[in-house]
Amino acid sequence: MSEAYPALDAGTRLLTPRDIRLLAAYRGITPTKKRGQNFLLDANTVRVIVERSGVREGDVVLEVGPGLGSLTLGLLDAGASVGAVELDSALAEILPGTVEAKGFESARFALVEGDALALTQLPVPAAAGHEPTRLVANLPYNVATPILLTVFERFDSVREALVMVQLEVAERIAARPGSKVYGAPSVKAAWYGTSELAGRISRRVFWPEPNVDSALVRVRRDRVQAEGEAPREEIFKVIDQAFLQRRKTLRAALKSWAGGGERASAILECAGIDPQRRGETLEIAEFIAIANAASDTPR
Predict the structure, then answer these.
(1) Residue (of 187, 171, 153) closest to 286 by Cα position
(2) How many CB atoms lie within 10 A of CB 126?
(3) Number of Cα atoms under 13 Å in the Cβ half of residue 93
(4) Bridge partners of 62?
(5) Which residues share a beta bridge with 40?
(6) Which of 104, 106, 119, 174 has fewest C-beta within 10 Å?
(7) Whole-number mean pLDDT of the chain?
(8) Cα–Cα distance between 77 and 18 in angstroms, integer?
(9) CA-based angle 28:113:186, to the nearest 5?
(10) What's the half-sphere exposure (Cβ side, CA atoms, 13 Å) at 23?
(11) Distance between CA 107 and CA 230 in Å, rounded?
């Protein structure tokens, strides 16, 4: 660690507002809107997130976008090992030093510098006996939904996520059929399992203070796939097409995907779904039924 590394507060293992100011000044860091960066200032909020995540001693956690390390230290303080992915090189450079300065074992922390959307292998701390099983993160707001869905798509070891995102994004992910905000992200999250809102977060606990409210959303990988179910990729194609123009009936919305209106109607009939319904009224099981029916309907 550099001799010039800031002398962080010794009275707590979490970051204080003073710590954050020192770290930012040390590397000339200013949060950028382009990367959706809003750094957590409040240790009590960190404790709330960790408590609601259910993380316990011995857990292995994936964190995307750790920033200056506020949540990272909270997870380490709970006894977890943390594998982090950080895109910003300046932040990635100082984070290991922050972990060390706050008295945590470096073997419980691993860091990969790069884009989470391009990640093909999870970072695994040396002290961990397996890959991360949880995602806990303050996700960059401009790419929060793609990151969440990509992690679930690529890494089967991740069984549960508790992420902080914009309030409207959290509501969209946790929405149910018939809701005004129910859409493709809602259904895709439901393909993996159950989702729920887990609390709102004040905008005043961030630096800089965002212009939007934030919330925690929890997603659990707990849906059991039926034998013979259509591949996820095919189901997601149906979902995307159904919400491309959400006010269209399913027959009209799925016309191009099915290869014509008549075949779309035949697929929907085979799936037991009224062609005049709209995508916003369907549950994940019905989207699956449509994808399943497509393989049994001649072109």
Answers:
(1) 187
(2) 11
(3) 11
(4) 83, 135
(5) 206
(6) 106
(7) 95
(8) 19
(9) 105
(10) 28
(11) 42
User: The tokens of 175 are what?
Assistant: 């929405």
The first and second tokens of residue 255, run together, are: 């016309």
- Both tokens of residue 240? 């995307």
Written as one letter, the residue type at 6 is P
- State how far the Cα of 11 lies from the Cα of 14, in Å rounded to an integer: 9
20: number of Cβ within 10 Å? 20
Tell me the pLDDT tens digit for each residue of 230-282. Answer: 999 999 999 999 999 888 999 999 999 999 999 999 999 999 999 999 999 99
- Give the residue from 81, 67, 76 showing the smallest Cα distance to 47: 76
Q: Which two tokens stand for residue 204?
A: 């005043």
Cβ contact 149:240 at 8 Å: no
Query: How far is the CA of 125 from the CAs of 19, 26, 46, 109, 145, in angstroms?
Result: 25, 26, 21, 5, 26
Task: Please tell me whether the overall predicted TM-score, pTM, comes out greater than 0.85 for this model.
Answer: yes
Q: What are the b/e assignments for 265-278, b being 16+ CB within 10 Å?
A: bbbbebbebebeeb
> Residue 82 in contact with residue 76, Cβ under 8 Å?
yes
Q: What stretches in the chain show pLDDT beneath 70?
A: 1-3, 34-36
Q: Read out DSSP for the chain?
A: --TTS----SS-SSPPHHHHHHHHHHHT----TTTT--EE--HHHHHHHHHHHT--TT-EEEEE--TTSHHHHHHHHTT-EEEEEE--HHHHHHHHHHHHHTT--GGGEEEEES-GGG--S----TT-SS---EEEEE--GGGHHHHHHHHHHH-TT--EEEEEEEHHHHHHHH--TT-TT--HHHHHHHHH-EEEEEEEE-GGGEESPPSS-EEEEEEE--PPPPTTPPPHHHHHHHHHHHHHTTTSBHHHHTHHHHTSHHHHHHHHHHHT--TTSBGGG--HHHHHHHHHHHTTS--
Cβ atoms of 22 and 39 within 8 Å: the answer is: no
